[in-house]
Write the structure tokens for this entry.
Amino acid sequence: MHTDTARCVRAVQSKDARFDGWFFTAVLTTRIYCRPSCPVVPPKVENMTFYPSAAACQQAGFRACKRCRPDTTPGSPEWNVRADSVARAMRLIRDGVVDREGVPGLAARLGYSARQIERQLLAELGAGPLALARAQRAQTARLLIETTGLPMAEVAFAAGFSSIRTFNDTVREVFALAPGELRSRAARSATPSPTPGVIALRLPYRAPLNPTNLFGHLAATAVPGVEEWRDGGYRRTLTLRYGHGLVALTPHPDHIGCRLLLTDPRDLTLAISRCRWLLDLDADPVAVDDQLRSDPSLAPLVDKAPGRRVPRTVDGAEFAVRAVLGQQVSTAAARTHAARLVTAHGLPVDDPEGGLTHLFPTPEALAGLDPEQLALPRSRRTTLTTLVTALADGTLRLGTDSDWEKARVELAALPGFGPWTVDVIAMRALGDPDAFLPTDLGIRRAAGELGLPSTPAALTARAAAWRPWRAYAVQYLWTVDDHPINHLPV
């Protein structure tokens, strides 16, 4: 979008927050870059230039605006819609892969050479993987500086910097303030956290956001010991790169409140990325709803409660296991099966607030389970053990960087994986916005009530008009049925 100057200027002059993250405005006279909705008086048109990423702005010598804090905008919704190499690379960079594995590690995961990835990212985002990772490190450092009391040396290495000097230089260059000055400014308006060690922050999103199906789904399907609903928020345990964490996510009118307790602060970038992915916070609800509203059958559902998101997962392997446990059983039965696995194979954790007791077991921890101990039909035991083996040995990889179609083929080749299981994993674990569930019982009931075709083939043909947002259409269709997933818990 940054190449459409007229459209960008209109967005800046109207301070349209819908475009935050789509592009960034750099002001030639002040050498500052802003989000489109920056509250200051818009600069003259001749002084504006536009970039596709914060990293490109920083690479061109611009520093972040202190008023609108463009480094905290939602991510571009482009990376949610696409499954090409650039989109997958951006999702991996967001997860901190470049910091941990370098550009060669990023390229190896995508099946390209480092030079090819560099060229593709430069062409589309105006910055290479190192510059994009550097911009993210700066944002992580700012969060740690402003929300924790960690010594600056610990902040530097937790944010992914290789040296304290690089950390100091980057913070000064990006924010025009020394790390100590950032902390002093934040301290004047900060509210102390009631729990020592907790990192409290706001997760931005594009409005509107309807929390009922999003948090209702997560709460209704919560696995005891791993997830819970408490004090108006969703809490769960996280298995991370360097340790584990506990997170509480609470919906507010203009942001999602996020409280993180990490055993290792180096996991902050990954934890934030997982939380944003879980709640689908980088979506563009206006584009989604406009497309679905064009169908007269869906328009009343969209108008009644716009801004529905797709509830995802913090771990693709975990969700795949839970999807198998949920085959042809009720939500309550699926939770019971999952809770038994957690108790038997999950690692215990300490929760200062009580309620959360375990991490969900990894595929490696489940690889040696005795199928005879599972209270499941024999065919489903085979499905579960085959899945766990494929995940544990790396034959099957389910992550934010997965190729959607390749993963679908690999899942369909496993015993006991029908279209429903494959597509619910594609929708919630892989993030495919066009995944569709025509055989789902709730979808078929909704179709009957709305006068839509009832057979899977006919409904799929009708749903072609909803592409590429059929996963969001599923969320609206599910609201026709009065199910706990559609309501926030009391």
User: Anything to note?
Assistant: The first helix runs from residue 5 to 13. The mean pLDDT is 91. DSSP finds 23 helices and nine strands in the chain. Strands lie at 24-27, 32-34, 48-51, 63-64, 199-203, 227-230, 233-239, 244-251, 256-262.
